[in-house]
DNA sequence: GTCTAGTAGTTGTATAATGCAATTAGATAC
DNA sequence: GTATCTAATTGCATTATACAACTACTAGAC
């Protein structure tokens, strides 16, 4: 095991990534991980183009383009042409998309709640905040 | 954004998974994520068979079998037949594997250190410990 | 205004990690 | 000893991804 905190973080991050991946791979509800993130981003941060989304998630534009097409095909997002740029458009979440996102979020929350049953409020708070801080750190890099 | 801690954890976990995946996908040093985890597990927890490793990481046996074959081919692990079971064997890390693992770990540590430059010792400790706790929770589920 | 360079998005192709199914060979139970 | 179970391998299909080529549009230089 690791003595120092950096070593521990490094090691636990690797394991976390491995375990989270295997959980979220066989998807939760009807939205896979990418679809869920995309929908969430659009829902919480407003409609957005493929380029912006691909930057946000550090994915290739082509990947996001396909994910967006899949979401559109399912009726969870719709495209609004960008009035200022004929090449671009905005992805906007539909009512159906909102419902789906909400259901999915609840399913995910239920899993987390179950997992963290025995955690104290303070531990939960700290964990959430430290992860948020870490995520912000990651995006700047 | 999320008000309550469970919501925050849920949300940040999804983002963390996304960002970590994209970092570790274009591999660090010469070991990809799976190879690194496998080597690490063998190095720190002693030699182990394919079955045990696949349980540990919740991967299909076939996946681990391929990863192990790749590591063996590179000379990072060797197989020791299980004297008690003719079907099974143990994977043991070689000296070359130890060197490789160590170099790789240092490269990863350097990245983490860079990212967490501005974090306090206490934050680092908390983050590491909470992740470890969460990882243990995950494996029991 | 027109030409050139740059950019948003799509689609084709390749790759890598994975799971599942079938198989082999050895172990265990009765 | 026969039937069942299990560790590992290998073949096959799927999925997420990146990269490259392409289209259509924009913006800047002149």
TrEMBL record, chains A, B:
The keyword Zinc does not apply. It comes from the Bacteria. Transmembrane segments: none annotated. Keywords: DNA-binding, Transcription, Transcription regulation. Residues 10-136 form the HTH marR-type domain. InterPro entries: HTH_MarR-typ, Tscrpt_reg_MarR-type_CS, WH-like_DNA-bd_sf, WH_DNA-bd_sf. The keyword ATP-binding does not apply. This is MarR family winged helix-turn-helix transcriptional regulator. It comes from Paenibacillus mendelii.
């Amino acid at each position: 095991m690791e003595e120092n905190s950096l070593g521990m973080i490094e090691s636990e991050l690797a394991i976390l990534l491995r375990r989270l991946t295997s959980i979220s791979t066989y998807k939760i509800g009807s939205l896979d991980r990418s679809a869920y993130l995309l929908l969430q981003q659009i829902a919480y941060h407003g409609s957005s183009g493929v380029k912006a989304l691909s930057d946000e998630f550090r994915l290739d534009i082509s990947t996001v383009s396909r994910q967006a097409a899949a979401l559109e095909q399912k009726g969870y997002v719709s495209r609004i042409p960008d009035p200022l740029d004929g090449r671009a458009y905005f992805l906007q979440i539909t009512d159906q998309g909102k419902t789906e996102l909400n259901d999915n979020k609840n399913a995910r929350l239920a899993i987390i709640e179950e997992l963290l049953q025995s955690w104290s409020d303070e531990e939960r708070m700290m964990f959430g905040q430290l992860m948020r801080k870490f995520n912000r750190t990651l995006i700047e890099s």
